[in-house]
Specification:
The complex is a heterodimer of chains A (about 220) and B (about 475).
Chain A lengths: L1 H21 L3 H26 L2 H29 L11 H15 L5 H4 L6 H20 L3 H21 L6 H29 L13
Helix pairs in contact in A: 1-2, 1-6, 2-3, 2-7, 3-8, 4-6, 6-7, 7-8
Chain B lengths: L1 H18 L3 H29 L2 E3 L3 E3 L1 H30 L5 H23 L3 H19 L5 H28 L4 H4 L3 H6 L6 H19 L7 H8 L2 H30 L2 H24 L3 H22 L2 H31 L10 H4 L1 H14 L6 H16 L1 H26 L20 H15 L3 H13 L1
Antiparallel strand pairs in B: 1-2
Helix pairs in contact in B: 1-2, 1-4, 2-3, 2-4, 2-20, 3-4, 3-11, 3-14, 3-19, 3-20, 4-5, 4-11, 5-6, 5-11, 6-9, 6-10, 9-11, 9-12, 10-13, 11-14, 12-13, 12-18, 13-14, 13-17, 13-18, 14-16, 14-17, 14-19, 14-20, 16-18, 17-18
Classes of the chains: A mainly alpha (about 220), B mainly alpha (about 475).
Chain lengths: ~220, ~475
């Protein structure tokens, strides 16, 4: 049962991350981020079933509130307010992006990352995927021209690191995880306000149009 | 308890700024909080320097490195706050900012200061990480402070790059917990004590993530790109806090991880990384100083260069490490003074572009003299202490890695040339033709903070109190 839930979680996580790379609409990106965060909750539930820990239940509940409910609502409001449906352009096209994601996966399976992957012991395959998700999120931020997409990329990176922590058995205490979630929530609010300010001043969320920092 | 009192003082000052409208009350509370922090931090540092580390319920520990960081933060915070009062009054009088902006500055800066104190003293690396992240969150809106296209661009760059850096640092931090889980090794001390069981390959990977991640906050090249923009666009007192206070706090985090890594695998790996990042920072900063046309950006590049010098010192070890710790202290005294003097120039000339600033010696002579003294101090001229610290670092380098030391020396020379050329064109030139720039200092209170900081830096070059010397020696020996 736990194994099935974990597999479901990691599958959702990977699908959402790949989806974030190919999404063309901001709305789709927000839904995919929400799905990715939900996958984290699924993984937390699997860990909860394994450890019967009330602390994990609390963390899963707060994660649900912050990442699956609160964040998408705020992002969607922002998209509607500024009518910014199509602003998630990329530097590389879809085939190039998918090729880069595959290359990253192959790189992670080389000996270079073996010491990290071996931390997990029995669930090495999951850690390979978690590590790939981390690199895929970094690629997402580097490849996207939209400010909203970059913010989603940062949040996706945070999700990936949480997944890595779960699979590597390196979860922190509940108090610390709440502290981290608090930071993420505040970051989210600041990012949303900042994205709004960018749109107000530049009339677009395309970061390549921000060229005022010269000299 | 004393440490918590400092933090509560800053939180109180932030609350007052958020809730009270009267500017004078906000200013008095903020100055009071930073004065209290300076007095208490000195007392804490004295205690640590004479009797050893102080622990608060296992959650916060003030060892030598934390005591040094806390004292540095408190000193810079005190001078930045007393400078901020006349600075923002002048900006307000010129209608550059309104009353809400002033409240915003004091509220967010006090939160920023509280977060720095907590990050510097947290016993647990994850708690320290959380508070260092708070420093980013509390200052993002201070970079977009003037609400222009360029300031928002700088703030966005700052927010994204720092978020990525801190997340990578968090990943590195998590890897250190493979030592024995977060229950068995939760504090810095426990991690060092159990470091021998850390897998060497994981130790290397973890330290690489940490130095890259926190290196963003420090401003090591090539992760420095947010720094010139953020320094260039933020108010002068914030630039002083970034350079003089935040840099040492972030540096201290990397040093703590260095100790764990060195205990696990020896110091060669971390030393090499310090030298690589140190050299890159020095060289890139030197060339950027030569080509930059904005004096606030030059100060940012100078901070990157000095972060590089400190990294080189720790990388060389021995005398170099001692020089690096002293360098950190002198840098935190001198660089804020330069931010304040250039702040005075900005108030008078309304531009940070060097081409638009000329003849400052005729217009604001005291500021200009302080700027020149600051220039010589920051580029390592005697009698200022940076001369000795740079000499110690280079001497240590000549013994172990002569080629690196020679290149570093050339970078220091380049920085001086670049700095002098730029400052000279601002100070020693003809009066501006613009009649709206009237001769005379904007306010005597804008002169006092940089003057005092330079005076302290000069005195500290010859005399260091016994307790402070003990702290510096301990940090240099340990890291």
């Amino acid at each position: 049962m736990i194994e099935i839930i974990t597999q479901l979680g990691i599958m959702l996580l990977c699908l959402a991350t790949i989806g974030l790379h190919v999404a063309k609409k901001n709305d789709t990106e927000v839904i995919l981020y929400s799905m990715q965060s939900f996958a984290i909750i699924v993984l937390l539930v699997a860990a909860l079933l394994q450890n019967s820990s009330l602390e994990l239940l609390l963390i899963a509940a707060v994660t649900l509130g912050v990442k699956v409910i609160f964040a998408p609502i705020f992002f969607s409001k922002l998209i509607r307010r500024h009518k910014i449906k199509f602003e998630s352009h990329t530097y590389a096209n879809v085939p190039e992006t998918l090729f880069a994601l595959t290359a990253l996966f192959l790189l992670i399976n080389t000996q270079i990352f073996a010491p990290i992957i071996n931390i997990a012991g029995d669930s090495r395959e999951y850690l390979v995927l978690a590590l790939w998700l981390i690199f895929a999120s970094v690629l997402l931020m580097a490849n996207r021209k939209g400010a909203l997409s970059q913010a989603t990329g940062v949040l996706s990176l945070e999700n990936s690191i949480v997944a890595f922590g779960i699979f590597a058995g390196l979860e922190q205490s509940a108090a610390l995880q709440m502290g981290i979630l608090f930071d993420v929530s505040v970051w989210l609010v600041i990012a949303i306000v900042m994205v709004s300010m960018i749109y107000k001043h530049i009339g677009s969320l395309d970061v390549t149009k921000m060229k005022d920092l010269r000299g | 308890m004393l440490l918590l009192a400092i933090v509560l003082g800053f939180i109180l000052a932030a609350t007052v700024a958020f809730t009270v409208k009267k500017q004078q009350i906000i200013e008095v509370t903020s100055v009071g909080a930073s004065t209290f922090a300076l007095i208490v931090s000195s007392a804490i540092a004295y205690k640590v320097g004479t009797t050893g580390a102080v622990s608060i319920a296992n959650t916060f520990t003030v060892d030598a490195l934390a005591a040094l960081s806390v004292l540095i933060v408190a000193t810079v915070a005190f001078f930045a706050t007393i400078y901020a009062v006349p600075y923002f009054r002048k900006e307000s009088a010129k209608k550059i900012i309104g009353p809400w902006r002033i409240r915003e500055y004091y509220a967010l800066t006090n939160l920023f200061l509280a977060a720095m104190f907590l990050a510097a003293t947290a016993s647990n690396p994850v708690v320290a990480w959380i508070f260092l992240e708070v420093t980013t969150l509390s200052t993002a809106f201070l970079i977009s402070y003037y609400n222009r296209r360029s300031t928002i661009e700088a703030a966005w760059k700052y927010l994204i790059i720092n978020a990525i850096g801190l997340l990578l640092a968090f990943l590195g931090t998590l890897l250190y917990f493979t030592i024995g889980g977060s229950e068995n090794a939760a504090t810095w001390q426990e991690l060092v004590a159990n470091a021998a069981v850390l897998d060497p390959a994981i130790a290397k990977t973890a330290f690489a993530f940490v130095i890259v991640g926190y290196g963003v906050k420090i401003g090591f090249a090539p992760m420095h790109t947010w720094k010139p923009d953020a320094y260039g666009k933020s108010p002068a007192p914030l630039g002083a806090l970034f350079s003089g206070a935040l840099l040492p706090v972030a540096f201290a985090m990397v040093l703590r991880f260095k100790l764990i890594t060195d205990t696990a695998i020896g110091s060669t790996f971390s030393d090499n990384l310090f030298i690589i990042f140190g050299m890159m920072s020095m060289l890139i900063a030197a060339f950027c100083i030569l080509t930059s046309h904005n004096y606030k950006r030059i100060l940012a590049y100078s901070s990157i260069e000095h972060a590089g010098i400190m990294a080189l010192g720790f990388g060389f070890g021995g005398l170099g490490a001692f020089g690096a710790v002293m360098h950190m202290v002198y840098h935190s005294l001198i660089k804020p003074s330069l931010f304040f003097t250039t702040g005075n120039v900005l108030i008078k000339y309304n531009s940070a572009r060097i081409a638009k600033v000329c003849g400052t010696m005729a217009i604001i002579p005291i500021t200009s003299i302080l700027l020149l003294i600051g220039l010589f101090a920051v580029t390592g001229f005697p009698p200022f202490g940076m001369f000795l610290t740079e000499a110690s670092i280079i001497t240590a380098g000549l013994q172990t890695r002569p080629a690196v030391a020679v290149i570093a020396l050339m970078a220091i020379a380049l920085v001086f040339i670049g700095f002098f050329r730029r400052v000279n064109s601002m100070v020693m030139t003809a009066k501006p033709t613009d009649q709206s720039i009237k001769p005379g200092e904007s306010s005597p209170w804008l002169i006092v903070p940089p003057l005092l900081l330079l005076a302290i830096a000069l005195v500290a070059s010859f005399y260091m109190p016994h307790f402070l010397q003990a702290i510096i020696n301990e940090v240099a020996l340990r890291y």
